[in-house]
Amino acid sequence: MSRSPNKGRKASDSGYIDLHIHSSCSDSPLSPREVVRIASEKGLRAVAVTDHDSVAGVEEAIDEAAEYGIEVVSGVELSVSDGLSDIHILGYFVDHADEVFQRELEKFRVARFERVKKILAKLKELEVDIDLESVLKIADNGSIGRPHVAEALLDSGYVDTFEEAFRRYIGHRSPAYVPKMLLSSSDAFRLIERAGGVSVLAHPGTVQRDDLIPEFVELGMAGIEVWHPKHDRGTVRYYMELARRHGLVVTGGSDSHGSRTAHAGIGSERVPYSVLVSLREAAARSTASR
Known about the structure:
It is a single chain. By secondary structure, the protein is an alpha/beta fold. Helices cover 42% and strands 17% of the residues. It has 2 domains: 2-6 and 16-104 and 186-289, TIM Barrel, CATH 3.20.20; 110-170, DNA polymerase, domain 1. It is built from 10 helices and 10 strands. Strands 1, 2, 3, 4, 5, 6, 7, 8, 9 and 10 form a 10-stranded mixed beta sheet that branches. Helix 1 (32-41) runs parallel beside helix 2 and helix 5 packs across helix 6 (162-170). The longest helix has 27 residues, at 99-125.
């Protein structure tokens, strides 16, 4: 679902969008309102709030967007498992007020909380003492995760940089790493579809599991995220062609986590507004076929 204060504009208007932004409702220090304000300063026409396992920030962003004349697309980012691969699926136009959808996402919030407790226990075994309350304070009621632990490690002086926290302690294959709860791909697509949304494969160039794309298409995937800070020009061209071959829409965004991804600020990827037009059309086709 999305709400637009720009109903007088034609879909063919020029402009740029960012369809992959995180807020303080997951692992960015930026509130949903701040996300919209920054997007306005950057001259963006539309944004999608795509927090990890949460739609809690969507309504706040929509309310703020009414003042700035920006369209907000309701979104979410889910993690799915396929063997050893951790793959992210973006859901767009989900009904963020749907109670069943919210209950399902709440299971992930609980799992994230339990995961952080296990990470802190492992850190304690390494004589790195970070208390849960400090991590919860950093998360500020958001969907808690490793970035909040990393920030607590930084604040406590155990590391000098955010990246060092992951490298030394909590990154994959690091001593305090704890796997997160993952959905099967079929369950993720079903959950997004159940909430009225359409699914898009996030930053495929970072996981390099293109072999899964035909299966995901069969499961109802609508698109591929082509523009992303970790995709160079060759990667963009490659996934453009792959999307064309499979009849998928292309999307893109900054994957901004605020100051935690200083290299990828909101609007850093030049994604044309026409992308949102195509995505909305795919959503309408999907809804009509259900």
